[in-house]
Amino acid sequence: MPLFDVYPLYNVTPVSANGIHVYDENNTEYLDLYGGHAVISIGHAHPKYVEAITNQVSALGFYSNAIQNPLQVELADKLEALSGCDGYNLFLCNSGAEANENALKVASFKTDKSRVVAFKNGFHGRTSAAVAATDNPNIIAPINAQQKVTILEFNDIEGVKTELEKGDVCAVIVEFIQGVGGLDQATAEFYEQVDALCKANNTFFIADEVQSGYGRSGKFFAFQHYNVTPDVISIAKGMGNGFPIGGILIHPSIEAKYGMLGTTFGGNHLACAAGLAVLNTIEDENLIDNVNNVSEYFNSIAKTIPQIKNIKGRGLMLGLEFDFEVGDLRKKLIYDHHIFTGGASNKKLLRILPPLTIAKEHVDQFFKALKKELEAVEV
């Protein structure tokens, strides 16, 4: 049976990985500066992570949410302590798309409204309402397009005000650092005014932290760089270091009701073991401090390279913008230098999303390769 052909693939076949490196069937070593779409947070095959999953699956891998699962409580408590989101409640699911779907569902339930405001170049997932709120018509099927969504420009505070005052918007959803869209950020004033407008108009403010959360921005969540209080925070990618897990943090003012949300696999024992291993490693190895230290070093070098026209993002969620499309450059980096990087809807942007364990020598290796390729382009 052939695979449904929806992914353009690089001719690389990873068979193992360790730390910040991936190895193919020929044992060729690749430097992973993309982390599988920012999923690998604490490094490939981290020993504490492997031990936690191994021990859990040998004891109890899965049972449904119809029974007590103390691991969920332990995960929620640890997440509250490390994130600083005091009093929020946790609902666990399996992916970022599910997280945003449930965030929007809670908002609609609680406001009794159905329209969503989202932003240009935003990406929130591929499920029903999440994909409708994504600014990419190519992945929105007619069944998704039935959702009522208004897409605005970043920093258009008058547009947000106008839409919210119409009285039918259940939620404003925002990536504080856009991922697929190209690492764009709005101003602090804009985010803070949107937060205030939401609170004045019975509208939920949803922080999509699926990619930017778990320390990647240099704080536990990217919204914490601003003076805002989201009603719901969606999480996934780096949460499980490769194991499928997602969730939403729900403000304590929002009351739960039996049956409001549900999932078969969400918050299963194995997923919680993976999630706890990630949080414990972030804490034990001071990985958020490492994010900030390595990010500063990365930026200091990037600023010296004249071909780089713009450095975007925060922490280890970075983009290097050039005056040419980077598709060929990415191929050169992967095939000639054995370095994984990422692309974006902005075709001139090279995305850097490494494991949070990255060291300065890995940054040096990347820039040595990049400079060589940029020099070749000029010649």
Automatic annotation (TrEMBL):
One Gene Ontology MF term: pyridoxal phosphate binding
Annotated keywords: Aminotransferase, Pyridoxal phosphate, Transferase
Entry keyword annotation includes Transferase: yes
InterPro entries, per the entry: Aminotrans_3 (IPR005814), Aminotrans_3_PPA_site (IPR049704), Class-III_PLP-dep_AT (IPR050103), PyrdxlP-dep_Trfase (IPR015424), PyrdxlP-dep_Trfase_major (IPR015421), PyrdxlP-dep_Trfase_small (IPR015422)
Cofactors: pyridoxal 5'-phosphate
Domain of life: Bacteria
Family per record: Belongs to the class-III pyridoxal-phosphate-dependent aminotransferase family.
Record's protein name: Aminotransferase class III-fold pyridoxal phosphate-dependent enzyme
Organism annotation: Aestuariibaculum sediminum
